[in-house]
Amino acid sequence: MKEFPGAGGLILNEPLLWEQGRRGRSGYSLPRPDVARAEPPAELAGEGPDFPDLSEAEVVRHYIRLSQWNFSVDAGFYPLGSCTMKYNPKTNERQASRPGFAGAHPLLPAALCQGALELMAALECLLAEITGMDAVTLQPAAGAQGELAGMLIFHAYHRQQGRPRSKIIVPDTAHGTNPASAALCGYTAVPVASNERGVISPEAVASVMDAETAGIMVTNPNTLGLFEENIRAVAEIVHGRGGLVYGDGANMNAVLGQVHMGEIGVDVLHLNLHKTFSTPHGGGGPGAGPVCVRRRLEPFLPVPRVRYADGVYTFSDDYPLSIGKLQAFWGNMGNLVRAYSYILSLGAANLKRASQLAVLAANYIKERLKGVYHLPYDRPCMHECVFSDKLQQAHRVSTLDIAKRLMDYGYHPPTIYFPLVVPGAIMIEPTETESKETIDRFIEAMQAIAAEAEQSPDTLHQAPTRCRRRRLDETAAARKPRLTG
Amino acid sequence: MKELSELTFPENLRYAESHEWISPGGSPVRIGISDYAQDQLGDVVYVELPEAGKTLAKGAPFGSVESVKAVSELYLPVAGKVVETNAALADSPELVNKAPYGEGWMIAIEPANPEEVDALLTSQAYREKLKG
Lengths: 485, 132
Prior knowledge:
heterodimer; A: Aspartate Aminotransferase, domain 2; 2 domains; seven-stranded mixed sheet; 14 helices; 11% strand; B: alpha+beta; CATH 2.40.50.100; 30% strand; globular
């Protein structure tokens, strides 16, 4: 009898915070004020928010209990495609907690936070070396803001060339945020369909790339987990007609130390430190989305930038062509420290090895589940593989049912119904941090679910049965959201 | 999801390969999405429609439909001017699932070239396309 991680067990009930506590109860005390008490102006005074009065223990237990209803990468295997839910080494937390970093106020004068600035400068150099790009900004708060920064840089570049352009090419295998980022910058996204091999064809790009088109946004490897093998030819077409190439680096975990993004024609690239460089994510942030550029685009990077001269690090706004400031202060510093810690912990050879193992793990899953689940693009993949529910549809079992059933087995479900080019997609990204035993057990769970789909489809329709909550009414939650306690 | 044989495609409508339907004959004409499209999308939770008065080209996106699975663009099967949108969808997006050809209609347009409507797929041709 095989033991899967999923099991029943005691889970504690937990009501809403508003249903707990008692008037006057408190879990904190403010320090004695060292300034004179003053009444606020009348126009600023008003009713306070409706917060419940709670003790420290009530608050702590509340969130611990809710966390026990949840699932995390510290608890188990989390193969959520394209999110790169790799394990986050605890040494990263230790470094980020050092008082010199954790306690540094963002308004400290540069002279009093040289260490933090040095770390930022050093991280910029490392990221440039890893990607094969020339200059880096650490400011964007996450991937989508990195994309927006990239689009603003495209716009600033074309304006400086004396001819602003209005369109951006976005292939259908790019990340879903790409067209949104282009649109937010005022560009019209021009979709391009991938070919029968699941990648962009140079002919398709050539047919839409014109003098009104600012460039192309390519996710490489793409959302099918395939390497865009025509990227050089595509970049040549785009560059030949005056455009720029944006690389969405969300899938960089497949190609660390393998691909020199600058050499394959990428002009601007964003990284997700919270994916590739092991800083935590999964609760909506904070992320970190540094943007790397080729030398000719460096003048457009956001300000302030860290500068080093005469043994001293300073912030400088003296970049007249800069797209400006993207957020308050300097970036999500805690995550910059974590990523720096990760890079130094692994070193060049092991970063490269991490990508190799991530690709190996995905291909292993692809080969072993091929035939059990439909594989729409049967060719070597990168760090993730995409299946569909085509074989299970005969038993009236859908991708959603399979994903829900995986929860009963003790796994976080993969990404489902994305990419859109594969109907009923199941997108699995194991990452390099999982052992062969863990991956084998997951494969066995997927096989067991496929067998259940044939023999007792209702088991899947009822799933999950072991979670604190059964199948949630996602439709009602989206149609009639209730956002207050 | 349903088998193709369980889906209905009324004979009196014309269909686009991007799964919109249009009611031919006269002007203005109504547009919505097919039974196949609503079934593939799953429960619709939000429909974004254009403002009346807008003139759009054939194939231009005129809005989007959000389901629990994904957000998909809606494409205008023929060129024309939007004269009315289905206001009921703002509060009841589920009408797209319940009655894709009836109360779930999306916009009404005055076609710029009425012959474009007749060139779209018939019910039978659309069903053949879906069979692949």
